[in-house]
Amino acid sequence: MSSRLNPYISFDGDARQAMEFYKSVFGGNLTLSTFGEFGAPDPSSADKVMHAMLETDSGFTLMASDTPPGMEHKPGTNISVSISGDSEDELRGYWAKLAEAGTVAVPLEKQMWGDTFGMCVDRFGIGWMVNIAGS
């Protein structure tokens, strides 16, 4: 898989409804995973969307989630840029440059879903998420 760059939107509990709406607008294939599927300890968040991805026939990719428990939802700052793929060296290189002189919110490390993932805000205030598949 080559690396891809796309928007990632955080919602305040209505990610499922929003992504189903976007699917009705753009068509394509929508996949959803909930916090409960990955063993969320808080039952109130079990049905919330941990990750959603809409891939359209036009080549659009839109990703989203509900804001995780314990994190603040701030409309206006709820869109990040996601870079994902399986080229570990390439993606770690992007991460190092983006995080330099920025703020790391989630260190780039192995996550419960099996990938290596990190979140940072670059020195210009842009939020980035890097996901390295199966690493």
UniProtKB/TrEMBL annotation:
It holds the Pfam family Glyoxalase. Residues 5-129 form the Glyoxalase/fosfomycin resistance/dioxygenase domain. This is VOC family protein. It comes from Saccharopolyspora elongata.
